[in-house]
Amino acid sequence: MSNLRHRLTAAGGFAVSVGLTAVSFSPARPMGYEFPQMTAVTMLVIAAALLLLAFKPGKPVISSNEESIPWRAIWPLLLVLVGFLLIAGTLGYFATSLIAFFLIVLIYSPGPLSWRRAINCGLVSAVFMGVLYLIFVALLNVQVPRGILL
């Protein structure tokens, strides 16, 4: 049963990566779209390697006594990512990324919630997003979704 789950997961991941690669190379893509194309091709190569490992005959690559997925720790991240997808087009990529990164750092950093911790998480998030802005927009000229904030 575990082997079947791994094969289905690998096949699903490969199918998603094929779809993303096909969409990223569509003729209607805008200029400056090379970074998502490189990411999609990299994802396709990794997914193909995992698919080959999943269907490799012999002993399974992953042991049968693997741990279950800790959904209680993952669901807050999933909610933040869904919220990110819903508002990124309205607020703009970097403003939404700043909010999402702040929430993720705040949720997953150890210790009790306090003003000091929130301010530290905000500073780390702002510096991180500033560096990403400089790298992707100023240096690489990557086009990102724009919104009312940036």
List the helices and strands and how they pair.
Blueprint: H1 2-24, H2 34-54, H3 71-91, H4 93-108, H5 115-139
Helix pairs in contact: 1-2, 3-4, 4-5
Describe the structure.
It is a single chain. This protein has 150 residues and is mainly α. Helix content is 71%, strand content 0%. It has five helices and no strands. It has helices at residues 2-24, 34-54, 71-91, 93-108, 115-139. Helix 3 (71-91) packs antiparallel against helix 4 and helix 4 packs antiparallel against helix 5. The N and C termini lie far apart (48 Å). The mean pLDDT is 84.
Outline:
By secondary structure, the protein is mainly alpha-helical. The protein has five helices and no strands. The model has no long low-confidence stretch (mean pLDDT 84).
Descriptive keywords:
150 residues; flat
User: What is the N-to-C succession of helices and strands?
Assistant: HHHHH
Radius of gyration computed on alpha carbons: 19 Å
Instruction: Name the poorly predicted regions.
Output: none
Number of discrete helical segments: 5
**Overall residue-averaged pLDDT value:** 84
